[in-house]
Amino acid sequence: MLLLGFASGLPLALSAGTLQAWLTVEGLDVKTIGFFALVGLPYTFKFVWAPLADRFEPPLLGRRRGWLFVTQLLLAALCFAMATLDPRVSVYAVGACAVAIAFLSASQDIVFDAYRTDLLPEEERGAGAAVSVLGYRIAMLVSGGLAMILADQWLGWPGMFRVMGVLFALLSLVTVWAPKVPKAESLASDVRAELVGFAAMLVAGFATFWLLRQAPWHWLGTGRFASLAADTLVLVLACVAALHAARRAGFPSFLAPWDAFFRRDRAVALLAMIVLYKLGDAFAGSLSTTFLLRGAGFTPTEVGAVNKVLGLAATIVGALAGGAWLAKRPLYASLMLFGVLQAVSNFGYWLLSIAPKSYALMAAAIGFENLCGGMGTAAFVAFLMALTDRRFSAAQYALLSALAAVGRVYVGPVSGVYVDAFGWPSFFVFSVAAALPGLVLLRWLRSDVRRLDAARAR
């Protein structure tokens, strides 16, 4: 679990914080960097192809380990491709590679989450989640802080990406030696029906998206916010069309997990809470690297050493502390306490934005924010696992974790424009306010969360 969790976490920074640092160092403007957060869209929509990973099996290593092996080799190849690019000259090619890395990373997450669910008995899932989160966070240190230091001090950005490529290739060997899982129960369905349903869903979604993109949206305005609003509306309508096509054509592996989840009481409210619970964290983190480099005036090495190394250590301590707390405390109380702490911790960045440059203050702000974030993540993962139906573990967990990524993806463009208009101090105060709707919704859903806790105890 530790090494496979490491493999799962390694690509995230390469399409997020490390990519952001690379673009910042190369001199791209903050609005462009903010819009690069959209390369994380595959994390939001990974539930679309998750049923295919359940339904189809590579010829080697089985359904779970086989797909892990394939995604890791392709990630290695993309890292070597990224090493040949310069964002000042080939910004669109860099964006395309980053999107591909995010797609494969999301696919690896789908399979790893299913592998963990299939392999671990229910009484070991809490410990397994903690160990995999530990590996995930260590990987973020390697592809985040360590990668930035390597790029800044020794290897340059191309050399750093080559090192990451070699690391992915080595991790594919770990997958080969990972324990086999028992044959998981899956939905009996016709392969042809699955492929036809999947194709119909994609065609309907893309056709609707393309047609609506041709429509005049000038009534929304001409600025970047108007463009983002139009794109979001088009995307939502395309998703509705895709879901309708899946139902008409028949896509059992996709529809059955959805139908099972929506038979829950207040299912829509539970999904909304998943989106909103870490929204404040998402706002504060969306431009944190750019803030530390450009807003606070620290160097890439300083950011790598303090933000990534200390931040990772604090996150690990927070995750372990959160896991220990969850072993003795109810899920609802843990979610509420850690959610409040996550919101309060963003004030550290606000203080850093108004105070003179201080390494000690940076360390304190980053340490506290990551400590609280680690505790919140431990409770949040436990919440997602409690919501998952064992019959549809891969598809449902992919849906829930994809919704959890919505905030992280969509706040990027808004954050860049907000900082340009109002500055860093106001931005971090706003990030605290953004955490409040999720806490209010959690309070309203307390009886539902307590029922999940009771089921988990049984």
Task: Kindly describe this structure.
With 458 residues, the protein is mostly helical. Helix content is 81%, strand content 0%. The relative contact order is 0.14. The model has no long low-confidence stretch (mean pLDDT 81).
CATH architecture of the largest domain: Up-down Bundle
> Number of DSSP helices?
24
Q: Which bin fits the share of residues in helices?
A: over 70%
Total domains: 2
Q: Order of helices and strands, N to C? A: HHHHHHHHHHHHHHHHHHHHHHHH
Number of strands: 0
pLDDT under 50 segments (min length 5)? none
C-alpha-based Rg, rounded: 21 Å
Highest CATH level, the class of the largest domain: Mainly Alpha
What's the overall average pLDDT, rounded? 81
CATH superfamily of the largest domain: MFS general substrate transporter like domains
